[in-house]
Design goal:
Length: 189
């Protein structure tokens, strides 16, 4: 287990790729369950209008993994699916763990802005310096997650970072479009 954590740390620091993870469908299943549990925890901290149910989280995860498989299959790299999916899910779980305390700080502002008829004055009253810092860190974690996932795709597809970043964003947008069509804007994970 410690070697897995060291490998994950190195992936998070862009030093290693998904090929350095063990090929383990069991580890992939554990990563899927952890991702689903954390997505539900994160959803509970969001305003009721933005919350999705467990069903939408399962569909979102299945959709993201399905799109990844289709991409790898189209490029004849389907043998890399288990390690790539495991790496992406573990990175997403790590990002979610980092976002949990930030969402506790940002939560009051999210609830105020989600309230119908919220005015700029009520939003400004809910804001303070710690919330602004938490929001900045929230955005930084999101960008870092995007870059690490692009690094994973770069290693898997053996391409440069910028095309991998564009492919990663295309996969994210495609997944969100389908989830919006299915659940009316409820985010899947």
């Amino acid at each position: 287990m410690p070697s897995l954590l060291v490998t994950l740390r190195d992936i998070l620091l862009l030093r290693r790729g998904p090929q350095d993870l063990p090929y383990s469908p069991v580890l992939l299943a554990i990563a899927v369950v952890a991702s689903l549990l954390l997505s539900q925890w994160l959803a509970a901290l969001q305003p009721p209008q933005a919350q999705g149910g467990i069903f939408s989280a399962v569909v979102g995860t299945a959709l993201n993994l399905g799109l990844l498989y289709l991409l790898l299959n189209a490029l004849q790299r389907q043998a890399r699916f288990v390690q790539t999916a495991t790496a992406i899910l573990l990175v997403d779980v790590t990002a979610a763990v980092l976002l949990l305390p930030l969402l506790h700080v940002i939560g009051p502002v999210l609830r105020v802005t989600a309230t119908p008829g919220a005015t700029p004055e009520t939003v400004a009253a809910a804001m303070n310096g710690s919330i602004a810092l938490a929001t900045l860190l929230f955005v930084a974690v999101g960008i870092w997650n995007l870059v690490v996932n692009a690094h994973i795709l770069r290693q898997t597809l053996e391409i440069r970072l910028m095309p991998a970043l564009l492919i990663n964003m295309a996969l994210l947008f495609a997944g969100q479009i389908v989830l919006s069509a299915l659940f009316g804007g409820a985010e899947g994970n």
